Amino acid sequence: MAEDYSPNTTSNIAAGLWGPYLLGQNAEKLCRTWAQATHDYFHSLWIGGQADQCGICLVPVLEVSGHHEPTPWWHDIVFGFQRLSPESLQQLTNEHKPIKDYATGFTYSTFTCEPTKLMNFYHHVLMMQTNVSFHKKKLSTMKCVDNLDTDENTLIINCFGLGAKTFSDDPDLTPIRGQVRKIETPGIFHSFSNDYCYIIPNTDSITLGGTKQYSTDTRVCPLDRNSIRKNCEMVVPSLQHATLVKDVVGLRPLRSTGVRLQMESFHGFSGRKTILHNYGHGGAGISLAWGCAGAVVQLIEQWENNFEDVQSKL
Ligand SMILES: Cc1cc2nc3c(=O)[nH]c(=O)nc-3n(C[C@H](O)[C@H](O)[C@H](O)COP(=O)(O)OP(=O)(O)OC[C@H]3O[C@@H](n4cnc5c(N)ncnc54)[C@H](O)[C@@H]3O)c2cc1C
């Protein structure tokens, strides 16, 4: 049950480059488990011949910055992680002419997972099951769960992204506005980012980004559009000849206290209701998706066991 489905979700806007970071109060160990599981999953789809259906690509990444950065905690999850030498940083600085000379650079290979393709794949898989159905419906608050025709055995999983702010009445959730430009151009097969922009290739288009602003405005801003173009063209001048597919804006569901993966029960008019929350993935929702889904499955198994214990004691 969702207010809307693909292609009208935040996930559809993401280029889907695997690139986790620590969220709120989530421990590094936990983020690492989720991130590693997701990377392993993308890898298994890629080697298993499902890359095309699921939108998985293995891409080389070049990441540079004008700041001195430590080696990231996820360096041993990606393939072939290396720090750039001072000579390479100088060469890239001469080429791109950033405001601040590059001080740090990493190269490695990792996966992009295009959410639109992966969601379409799973939608198709689920439609083949006889006991699965999709309903378009908004649940404004947790109280709305009371109006659903469910009994105490029903578990509701809340993956509402930013919608969880009102549904769960969660003040920790904040929208981080991301405007990006989807283009078509031949010959770009590697991902690049610096302090001003990023270029991420997908199978049918390339995503140029982007903004990170505290805002709920989902309209395309012409100023952002121009700065994304200008900054990306500084790095790859040939992008000025690219064909525009669309400019688009999404709101990242950032939660100051980290991803919420937790069970919650309440007594409604129609009995006890249990909700399993899984939201607040900020700008790393694609990078953590499979790992968090695994944690959801574990929580469901625990809940089922507890439920059986209670039932057998009655
Ligand atoms: C520009 C941009 C670029 C990004 N790039 C990357 C990237 O490269 N790598 C990466 O890992 N992450 C990236 N992200 C972050 C990633 O997109 C998000 O973390 C992720 O999409 C969150 O997924 P979600 O399923 O929680 O939310 P959503 O995709 O927003 O899905 C929420 C679903 O819940 C439904 N819903 C919401 N409220 C309700 C309600 N009250 N009742 C019923 N249904 C409801 C919605 O209709 C929707 O179907 C990017 C984000 C943006 C904006």
The overall pLDDT average reads 94
What's the tally of helices?
A: 7
Biggest sheet, in brief? 9 strands, mixed
Strand content: 25-35%
Question: What value does the Rg take, in angstroms?
Answer: 21 Å
- Order of SSEs, N→C? HHEEHEHEHEEEEEHEEEH
Stretches where pLDDT falls below 50 for ≥5 residues?
Answer: none
**Percent range of helical residues:** 25-40%
What overall geometry do the principal axes of the alpha carbons give? elongated
Q: Could you give the distance between the termini?
A: 32 Å
Number of DSSP strand runs: 12
Structural class, by secondary structure, is alpha+beta
Bound molecules: flavin-adenine dinucleotide
Fold and architecture overview:
The strands form two sheets. Strands 1, 2, 3, 5, 6, 7, 8, 9 and 10 form a nine-stranded mixed β-sheet that branches. Helix 1 (28-47) packs across helix 7 (285-313). It is built from seven helices and twelve strands. The longest helix has 29 residues, at 285-313. It is α+β, with helices and mostly antiparallel strands.
